[in-house]
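Protein in question kept underneath.
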Amino acid sequence: MLSAKSLFQEILDNDESFRLFCSIAASGESQGGWENARIAALVPESERALAPKITRHGADEDKHGRIFNALLKKRGLEPVEVPPDTDYTMLLERHGIGLAHDKLKADRPLTVRDVITYLAHSRVTEQRAAEQMAMLVKYFADHPDLGRAVRMISADEDNHLAYSHEELLRFAAAGHGPYIRRTLRECAHAEIRVHRDVSLAVMARMGRLLGWSRARSALLAAGIHAMYAAERAAGWRRMVTLRTPERRDALGGPATAAPEIA
C-alpha cells in the first residue's frame, strides 16, 4: 500500500535517497538562516525591537541545517549538490516572493513594508514547514536516528509560525491590513505552485534512485497534481488567515542548542 509513511520510510532506508533528502533540507534551512541574519541587520530603526526575534529565527534555521548535515554524517554520507529544480527557497525568490537577495546584500536599511513582506513570506512558508514537520513527527517521532531531530525542528517551526502571526497582526492593527492581505495572497499562490514543481522534481529523482516503476511514479505525480488542484481551489486560504497564536512572544528568547545527533 502506498502511503506517506511507507514512502518516507523507503527514502530514509536508502543511503542515496536519504542523502538527497537531507542535502535539500540542509541547503534550504541554511539559506533561510542567511536571509534572516541579513534582514535582522537591515531592520529599520522604527522596528529595531524585532531584530532579536529575526536573529533567533535565523539561528533556528541555521541549527536545522546543522541537524540535517549531522544526520548525514552519522550515516557516513556527504551532502550532494542540490539540483536547481528542487531548490525551494531560490525558486520562491525567482518568483518574486519574499525579499530579493540583491536587496539583502546591500547595506541600505529596509522599509517597514519590506519587513511586512518578509513576515508575510514567513507566514506562508512556515505554514508549509510546520505541516510537513508535523507529518514527520507523526510517523517518525520514535525513530532511533530521526526522532529527536524532527521533534526539535517541528517545535521550532511552530514557534516561527506563531511569531509571524503575532507580528503581522500587530502591523495590521497599525493600519497595514490591506497590504498584508494582498501580500499574503500573492505569496500563497506562488508558494503552492513552487511546492508542486519542487515536489515533482524531488519525487522524479527519488524514483530514479529507488527504481520505482513508471506506474508508481505516475501515481505519485498524479497525487502531487491533485494536491495542487485542491490548494489552488481553496487550500491556499489556510496560509493567509491570521489569528492570535496560543503561544505569545514565541521567539522572545535565545535559540535552543542543536541535539548531539552525530
